[in-house]
């Protein structure tokens, strides 16, 4: 399975052969980071006892949906977790990093009751990221329909990606991982390893995707050269798709995604392998897009939200990123579309943080990556509209 794709030797000319141990300690590439909180807030626990909660979505009537990586979908009503999970959810391959991943609500949910799920499909020998659409009826799913399955299948239970985001034209962007053992395939266009794909709500392929009709390229690919995409948000105010991805040891990236572009992995990276081996001698290459922001050493970025809301107006338009290894939230200060500063938030939580979301009122919700895991709600201490 691992060798089913021929590798283009010219692509990796100049790579350092063999395993070379890194002699120097990795240094931070992001400059100084402000420690402290630029807002007064309070944190309350909405739910606990969850098995590695992974993603959260808000329904128009105030209810919420939350996935567990173990394979369940739960509903929260009036800030309380309902006792029974949602029924009719497709079976996920729950192993290592695989399982039930993202939940996303259709923009027209009030009319059609549709939601979208990403999850690891298959078994240990053959698995892939899959996207389904289903109709939510009370506490069950009906009319479950497969929209997309990453190709080819792989035999590694890691690096699925799975984050989804609605673009401004109503199409769906899906972030995918490189499967760990298949990283060279992120540079090829005949597979889904290390890609962002773009589809319509019914799973069909937009005619204006950048590689439609190109020989030896999949029509649904939107961008390529990614490692393991864990954050994906669209900013309608600036028509920008923001993405972040895990590096290995260092080289976590925040990228501004443009159709048809190559984001470098593994030819260009600021990270090294977990063994200390050099992955590539290049941090930048012609024809490949450099990241907007890099974390070295790695913070292990997970979820991401673009903040808009009344609770924390001073953060309006900023990116908030949860970190698994560093156990806090990073606020990336965006000014005129550029990341100009960085702040550490909510360090007192001191847990692996999997996801962060902004509700319609501007409150923040954070999921802790644990079993038992929690859903935490963060509101402004001075917001008079919050009870």
Question: Could you outline the blueprint of secondary structure elements for this entry?
Answer:
Elements: E1 34-35, E2 41-50, E3 53-58, E4 64-68, E5 73-77, E6 80-81, E7 100-105, H1 109-112, E8 114-122, E9 127-137, E10 140-149, E11 161-166, E12 172-176, E13 195-199, E14 221-224, E15 228-235, E16 240-246, E17 252-257, E18 293-295, E19 301-306, E20 319-323, E21 329-335, E22 338-345, E23 353-358, E24 364-368, E25 373-380
Parallel strand pairs: 1-22
Antiparallel strand pairs: 2-25, 3-4, 4-5, 5-6, 7-8, 8-9, 9-10, 11-12, 12-13, 13-14, 15-16, 16-17, 17-18, 19-20, 20-21, 21-22, 23-24, 24-25
Task: Give a summary of the structure in a few sentences.
By secondary structure, this protein is an all-beta fold. The protein has one helix and 25 strands.
Which residue ranges are poorly predicted, with pLDDT under 50 across at least 5 consecutive positions?
Answer: 1-31
Task: Give the SSE order as H and E letters.
Answer: EEEEEEEHEEEEEEEEEEEEEEEEEE
Shape: globular
Percent strand equals 35-45%
Give the rounded overall mean pLDDT.
Answer: 91
Number of continuous helical runs = 1
Q: In angstroms, what separates the terminal alpha carbons?
A: 55 Å
Describe the sheet with the most strands: 5 strands, mixed
Q: What is the gyration radius calculated from CA atoms?
A: 20 Å
Helix content: under 10%
- Spatial order of the strands forming the largest sheet: 1-22-21-20-19
β-strand number: 25
Structural class: mainly beta
């Amino acid at each position: 399975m691992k060798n089913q794709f021929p590798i283009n030797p010219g692509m990796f000319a100049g790579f350092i052969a063999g395993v070379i141990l890194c002699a120097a300690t990795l240094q931070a590439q992001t400059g100084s980071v402000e420690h402290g909180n630029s807002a007064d807030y309070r944190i309350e626990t909405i739910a606990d006892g969850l098995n590695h909660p992974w993603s959260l979505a808000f329904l128009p009537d105030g209810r919420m949906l939350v996935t567990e990586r173990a394979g369940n979908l739960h509903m929260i009503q009036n800030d309380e977790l309902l006792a029974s999970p949602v029924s009719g959810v497709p079976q996920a391959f729950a192993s290592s990093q695989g399982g039930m991943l993202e939940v996303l609500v259709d923009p027209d949910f009030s009319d059609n009751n549709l939601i979208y799920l990403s999850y690891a499909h298959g078994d240990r020998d053959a698995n892939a990221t899959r996207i389904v659409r289903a109709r939510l009826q009370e506490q069950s799913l009906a009319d479950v329909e497969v929209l997309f399955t990453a190709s080819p299948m792989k035999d590694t239970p890691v690096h699925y990606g799975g984050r989804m985001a609605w673009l401004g034209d109503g199409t769906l962007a899906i972030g995918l991982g490189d499967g760990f053992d298949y990283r060279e395939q992120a540079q090829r266009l005949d597979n889904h390893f290390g890609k962002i794909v773009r589809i319509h709500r019914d799973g069909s392929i937009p005619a204006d995707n950048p590689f439609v009709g190109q020989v030896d390229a999949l029509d649904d690919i939107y961008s390529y050269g990614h490692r393991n995409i864990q954050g994906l948000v669209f900013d309608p105010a600036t028509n920008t798709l923001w993405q972040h991805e895990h590096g290995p040891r260092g080289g976590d990236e925040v990228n501004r995604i443009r159709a048809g572009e190559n984001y470098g992995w593994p030819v260009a990276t600021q990270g090294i392998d977990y063994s200390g081996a050099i992955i590539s001698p290049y941090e930048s290459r012609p024809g490949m897009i450099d990241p907007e922001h890099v974390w070295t050493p790695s913070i292990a970025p997970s979820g991401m939200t673009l903040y808009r809301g009344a609770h924390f107006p001073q953060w309006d338009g900023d990116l908030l990123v949860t970190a698994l290894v560093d156990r806090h939230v990073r606020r990336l200060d965006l000014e005129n579309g550029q990341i100009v500063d960085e702040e550490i938030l909510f360090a007192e939580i001191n847990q692996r943080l999997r996801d962060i979301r902004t509700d319609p009122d501007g409150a923040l919700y954070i999921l802790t990556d644990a079993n038992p895991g929690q859903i935490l709600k963060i509101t402004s201490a001075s917001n008079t509209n919050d009870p």
